[in-house]
C-alpha cells in the first residue's frame, strides 16, 4: 500500500490516480453532452453469406467523433456509459439513428437487410426498453423483423429470470436475437436452450486462434455442430483471411463477418453494398 512505501510512494501514486479519475469524469460529462446533441455516429459492418458472399445483414457499431481525441471506438466509452448511467440513452441514440437510416434507405428504394444492434444487459433490463423501442419503430414505420439484437453471452446469463422475460417479449414482437461473442462468456447450455435466439455469433478469438491452436479449431467446429442440432444460425466474427473463410464454410458456418470482406463503414458507403451482387472485397478461391 501507499503507507508501506512511505510518503514518496504516496505522493507519486496519488496524483496519477486522481488524474485518471478526473479524465473519466471529464469524458463522461462530455459523453452526456454528446448524447444530448446526438453527436454519436453509427458505422455498419456487413454480414456476408460464406457461400455466395452476398450481404445478408448489417451490424450497427457506434462511434464517437470527439473534437480533441478523434473518432473514439466503443471500448473507450461503452463501459464508461454503462458505469455512469448513460447506457440507456446511448442505446436510444443508436436505435434512432439506425431506424432513421433504414427509413432513408427504404425511401431510396434500396433492398433492405436486417440491422443488428448491440445491447447491454442494463438496457434490456430497463423497464422502458421495449416500449421505447416499439415507439421508435412505429415513428419510422419499420417492422421489428428488420432489427436484430446482439446480446453478449455473459450478459444474457445474468439475472436470468427478468432478462428472459424481456427477451421473450422481444421475440413475441418479431425481433431477431443473436448471442454475441459465443464461447467467451459464462456458458450454460441449458440457458442456451431457453434463450429465444436464432443465431450464435462465434467469437473472433476462436476464428483467429484456429490456425495455430487446434483446440480453438475443435471448439469452433463443435459450436457449429451444436448450433445445427439446435437449428440456430452461425455467424463467425473477425474473419481476416481466405483460409479462415474457407475452413469455416467447410465446417458448416453459414455467415461471416470480418476485415476480409468489409470493415465497419459509414452509412454513406452502405448503399453500394446493398446493391452489389456480392461483396467486392475478394473472390472465392
Ligand atoms: P462486437 O459486437 O463483438 O463487434 C465486433 C467488433 O469486432 C467490432 O469492434 C468490429 O469493428 C470488430 N471487427 C470486425 N471485423 C473484424 C476483423 O476482421 N478483425 C478484428 N480484429 N476485428 C474486427 P468495435 O466496433 O470496436 O466494437 C467493439 C464492441 O463494442 C462490440 O463488439 C460491441 O460489444 C460493443 N458495441 C459496439 N456498438 C455498440 C452499441 O451501439 N451499444 C453497445 N451497448 N455496445 C456496442
Ligand atoms: Mg456484436
Ligand atoms: Mg462479437
Ligand atoms: Mg464483443
From TrEMBL:
Superkingdom assignment: Bacteria
Domain called EAL: residue spans: 24-278
The protein, known as: EAL domain-containing protein
Coverage span on the entire protein: 412 to 696 of 696
Amino acid at each position: 500500500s501507499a503507507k508501506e512505501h512511505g510518503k514518496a510512494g504516496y505522493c507519486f501514486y496519488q496524483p496519477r490516480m486522481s488524474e485518471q479519475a478526473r479524465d473519466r469524469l471529464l469524458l463522461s460529462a462530455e459523453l452526456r453532452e454528446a448524447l444530448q446533441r446526438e453527436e454519436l455516429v453509427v458505422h455498419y459492418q456487413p454480414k456476408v453469406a460464406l457461400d455466395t458472399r452476398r450481404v445478408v445483414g448489417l451490424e450497427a457499431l457506434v462511434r464517437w467523433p470527439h473534437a480533441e481525441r478523434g473518432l473514439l471506438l466503443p471500448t473507450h466509452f461503452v463501459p464508461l456509459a454503462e458505469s455512469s448511467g448513460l447506457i440507456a440513452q446511448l442505446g436510444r441514440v443508436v436505435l434512432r439513428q439506425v431506424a432513421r437510416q433504414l427509413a432513408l434507405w427504404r425511401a431510396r428504394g434500396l433492398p433492405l437487410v436486417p440491422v443488428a444492434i448491440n445491447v447491454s444487459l442494463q438496457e434490456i433490463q430497463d423497464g422502458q426498453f421495449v416500449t421505447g423501442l416499439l415507439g421508435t419503430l412505429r415513428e419510422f414505420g419499420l417492422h421489428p423483423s428488420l432489427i436484430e439484437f446482439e446480446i453478449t453471452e455473459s450478459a444474457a446469463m445474468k439475472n436470468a429470470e427478468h432478462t428472459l422475460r424481456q427477451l421473450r417479449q422481444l421475440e413475441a414482437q418479431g425481433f431477431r436475437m443473436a448471442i454475441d461473442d459465443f464461447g467467451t462468456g459464462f456458458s450454460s447450455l441449458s440457458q442456451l436452450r431457453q434463450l429465444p435466439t436464432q443465431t450464435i455469433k462465434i467469437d473472433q478469438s476462436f476464428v483467429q486462434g484456429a490456425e495455430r491452436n487446434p483446440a480453438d479449431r475443435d471448439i469452433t467446429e463443435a459450436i457449429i455442430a451444436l448450433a445445427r442440432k439446435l437449428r440456430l444460425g452461425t455467424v463467425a466474427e473477425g474473419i481476416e483471411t481466405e483460409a479462415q473463410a474457407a475452413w469455416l464454410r467447410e465446417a458448416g458456418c453459414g455467415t461471416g463477418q470480418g476485415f476480409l470482406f468489409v470493415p465497419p463503414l459509414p452509412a454513406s458507403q452502405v448503399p453500394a453494398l446493398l446493391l452489389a451482387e456480392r461483396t467486392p472485397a475478394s473472390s472465392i478461391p
